[in-house]
Specification:
Blueprint (H helix, E strand, L loop, with lengths): L1 H19 L5 H16 L8 H16 L5 H33 L5 H8 L4 H10 L4 H31 L4
């Protein structure tokens, strides 16, 4: 029981510290890094009971559900065709990359597909693990992707808005 408490405290401290330091991904990234490092130092590692994993998934689902508001209905109808097209394109690329990674012997196809697929780090990692794939790899892969996006997207938005303001776009 002390092992679970130690990981919980480490994750909480890491999440709060990362959020306070304005690290991209804040609470989730900090919690994952600190708890992951803590688990590396535990002699036998640690395995979360499946019921706890299910509870965490439910809490994540509720958290996402709470972000829904009525404006989403109007905007959602307008953007739905582009959202579907974007998803099809991203999934096509993900399948191709996963196939390539598995053919090169880097990782099995299922794990690679969860890693290359668009989606949130926590959701995809938990889903991969629940489907008996390497959730740690998936979380790491998405961590790299999210850090990159968090650094590049704000800069890209500023550049495009500047170019639009100057009349170049």
């Amino acid at each position: 029981m002390e092992r679970y408490l130690l990981v919980l405290v480490a994750g909480t401290v890491g999440g709060l510290l990362a959020q306070r330091c304005h690290i991209p991904g804040g609470a989730v990234v900090g919690a994952m890094l600190f708890s992951g490092i803590t688990v590396l130092f535990l002699p036998k590692g640690i395995v979360l009971p499946s019921s706890v994993g299910t509870g965490i998934q439910i809490i994540l689902g509720i958290t996402l559900g709470l972000t829904v508001d009525r404006s989403l209905l109007t905007l959602g109808v307008k953007i739905l065709p582009l959202a579907i097209l974007s998803t099809i394109i991203l999934l096509t690329v993900a399948v191709c990359m996963a196939f390539l990674a598995s053919k090169l012997g880097m990782v099995d196809f299922g794990t690679a597909l969860f890693g290359f697929s668009p989606g949130g780090m926590t959701g995809m990692a938990i889903l991969a693990q629940s489907e008996n794939h390497n959730g740690s790899f998936v979380a790491f892969f998405h961590l790299v992707r999210i850090f990159t996006l968090f650094l590049v997207i704000p800069l890209l938005v500023k550049v495009v808005m500047y170019l639009q303001h100057k009349g170049y776009l």
